[in-house]
Amino acid sequence: MGIVLTVFRKELKDSLRDRRTLFMLVVLPLLMFPLFIGLTSSFIASHEARAQQRTMSVAVFMQGNEPGFSDYLLEQESVELVEVEDRARAEELVRSDSLDAFVVFAEDFDEVVGQLGTGHVDLVMKVTEDNDIQRRRLQGVLTGYAELLRERRFRDMDMDVSVCQVLEFETVNLATVQERFAEVAGGILPYMFVIFCFMGAMYPAIDLAAGEKERGTLETLLTSPIGKMQILAGKVGVVILTGITSAAISFIGLYAGVRYISSIPPELFDMLMSILRPGTVVFLITLLFPLTVFFASILLSLSFTARSYKEAQSKVGPLMPVIIVPAFIGMLPGIGFNALTAVIPVLNVTLATKQILAGGADPLLIGLVYLSLVVYAALGLLICARTFSRESVIFG
Q1: Has residue 316 got a pLDDT over 80?
Q2: What residue ranges define each of the domains in the chain, with the CATH number in brackets?
Q3: C-alpha angle 10/12/13, rounded to 5°?
Q4: Which of 2, 47, 49, 285 is buried most, with the most CB atoms less than 10 Å from its CB?
Q5: HEC assignment per residue over 73-139
Q6: Residue 343 carries which DSSP code?
């Protein structure tokens, strides 16, 4: 054991001398969450503020009806009424973003409404994610005008408008903050922690295998009176440590981002703090540890088969989609947490975390996740040991 620790300290010292390893181990995990949370909160707040205050240009085609809506529109804040000759020209202006929207009243609107019918109105605009706030604002204006006409209709009939309201309902959401958070961010955050584990282990794995082969120091290490498996244990230990440390530091970055960025909405603040509870953090770390062992073993195995640092990077690079796809699937709605998904690596971590955050995880499925991760870690270590024991690989 003492020899393994000696090799471990030596490999760790070599890894910490690499600036890329230090960046992936400390700087990126520490800064990613504060930057992400700060920029996202600021962007959303500024976008909504600009969209609410922006003056919208709107054209109205009354088509022979009374100009009541045009007068009503002029009374609204941040709305500019634009004169356009015909509908075809208005469509051209909307497509070119010179006009936000136009409203077309049916030719028989006044007649239908006068006969106690329902008049038809078209709201024409380009509906995209960027201008969805403008759409809601204009729909609110039309709803307000409809309420005005309805009140006028009932007033003319000497009736109270409330007589047509036969049902009033209110939606009571029994989903807890934890459950809502699990749906929104329960897939994204574990995915980011998994990525930090992988990235934190990747560069040390490349340097301690292909890097040492390229520098010629691996042969020197093998000539020392130390067993191959002891050398491998030291290298694997360092790669596991850097991977799990990267994820742990990302928790610190998340905490700093949540605590010290004042622009976070209060509800989002409460949601993010729920993942930083000691129990949740410990659960995530215990899930990530066997997964990191698996990552470290596979990364070292591939790196040992490379003859240079650059070749190792080209071999390890294709693993990124393998990590990203299962994690992305875990963020999709409708993906259930069952016996099948509980044994798929990376995906099982994402789904198990969502269940824990929601507060309703099945202990049997959680146990299956741990068991499968331990099995994958053991298989990874076995593959790595066999790869390192082949002289054709080490000296190839």
Answers
A1: yes
A2: 2-42+177-394 (no CATH), 57-164 (3.40.190)
A3: 65
A4: 285
A5: HHCCCCEEECCCCCHHHHHHHHHCCCCCEEEEECCCHHHHHHCCCCCCEEEEECCCCCCHHHHHHHH
A6: G
